[in-house]
Amino acid sequence: MKTVSPSILMLVLGLTLVVGSMAAPAAAQAADDKGLFQQIDIGLLSIGGRATYVDPKDGSSRWFGGGQVRLHPSRYFAFEGSVDYRRNDIGDTRVHSYPVMVSALIYPLGTTRLAPFLLGGGGWHYTTVKGPGGFDDTQNRFGAHAGGGLQFFFNKHVSIDSTYRYIWLEKIESRDQNIVDKKFQDNGHMVTVGLNFHF
Questions:
Q1: Every domain of the chain and the residues it spans
Q2: Rounded CA separation 155/161 (Å)
Q3: Read out DSSP for 73-95?
Q4: pLDDT digit of tens for each residue in the chain (199 aa)?
Q5: 186: which residues sit within 8 A by CB, 6+ positions away?
Q6: Residue 133 phi, psi dihedral angles, 5° rounding
Q7: Pairing mode, if any, of strands 86-90 and 77-84?
Q8: Which residue in 67, 162, 186, 191 is a FRET match for 97, CA 20 to 30 A apart?
Q9: Alpha helices (H) along 54-188
């Protein structure tokens, strides 16, 4: 069983420091003016881009990119739709994946200036696999995910967020170097850092 490597822990710590340092001046001003836990009146919709770090059980850990759209029907609840790109090299097998995920977000404190949230959901992962012996296949895989995050609202129109989620996925089917059918584990950790525009 693969454990969380020290490099992942350092990455999460580093991202926290970067996001914290970006938010610090605005947070200090907010603490003076209104407080970090005052409710922010945001619009129903937000759209944003994000950087995504993926660490699968089998394969390589890397940064990629994606986008997210959130619908906020209340202060305490939101829906997120996201699309990302991933490439994974597992031995002689190259995997391209396009995860399309839907998540429910629960904000226990509401949409405060500094807002922690829990998330969970599922996704469809459109996957192409190229492996030894001319193996070339397209696979539609499904999986669930759960985690949490922290969002900082600079104002009612702009926010940044960082999330962590663990993803459980169906295995990737390929072949090994001996042209023997093989399945690879693609479960793993996912960290995102996003910039959102609220309407």
A1: 6-198
A2: 13
A3: EETTEEEEEEEE-EEEEETTEEE
A4: 455 555 555 555 555 555 555 555 554 554 445 689 999 999 999 999 999 999 998 888 999 999 999 999 999 999 999 999 999 888 888 999 999 999 999 999 999 999 999 999 999 999 999 988 888 999 999 999 999 999 999 999 999 999 999 999 988 887 665 656 778 888 999 999 999 999 9
A5: 56, 57, 58, 59, 88, 95, 97, 125, 141, 167, 169, 170, 171, 172
A6: 70, 25
A7: unpaired
A8: 162
A9: none
Which residue's structure tokens are 């200090």? Answer: 28
Separate counts of helices (H) and strands (E) for the chain: 1, 11
Q: 3-class DSSP state for residue 1?
A: coil
* Cβ atoms of residues 68 and 197 within 8 Å: no
Which residues neighbour 192 within 8 Å (Cβ) at sequence distance 6 or greater? 50, 51, 52, 53, 66, 68, 149, 161, 162, 163
Q: Taking the model in full, what pTM does it have?
A: 0.79
The residues pairing with 175 across neighbouring beta strands, listed in sequence order, are: 181
